[in-house]
Design a protein that fits this description.
By secondary structure, the protein is α+β, with helices and mostly antiparallel strands. The protein has one domain. It is built from 3 helices and 5 strands; from the N terminus they run αββαβββα. It has a 3-stranded antiparallel sheet, with helices on one face. A hairpin with a 2-residue loop joins strand 1 and strand 2. The longest helix is centred in the N-terminal third of the chain and has 31 residues. The protein is flat, with a radius of gyration of 18 Å. It starts with a helix and ends with a helix.
């Protein structure tokens, strides 16, 4: 049973890695298919957001700290996928403490 779970776990990790490589490849292809002056290096492949612009401190902070946003999960400031909005989560916890 444990061996079966390990094997299934390894297979899942391989599928996730392959999916990540495919999405990154599609994102790069999507950007390179645009004229040079129209390349933004951020957007989405299907529902998955990507951002390959140089990570700036302000953008990294904005990714993880948006207390006024209603979103707890937001697109990453650099890379592929989503990240947590700790500002929103802190606000939820603070409101919970006041009750």
């Amino acid at each position: 049973m444990i061996l079966l779970l390990r094997t299934a776990g390894r297979a899942l990790v391989r599928v996730i890695r392959l999916g990540t490589v495919v999405i990154v490849g599609l994102a790069v292809e999507q950007e390179l298919s645009k004229p040079r002056e129209r390349r933004t290096w951020h957007g989405s492949v299907g529902p998955v957001p990507y951002n390959f612009r140089r990570p700036l401190r302000a953008r990294l902070k904005r990714e993880s700290w948006q207390p006024d946003s209603r979103e707890s999960v937001i697109p990453r400031a650099f890379g592929l996928g989503w990240g947590l909005n700790f500002g929103r989560l802190a606000g939820i916890l603070r409101r919970g403490e006041r009750r």
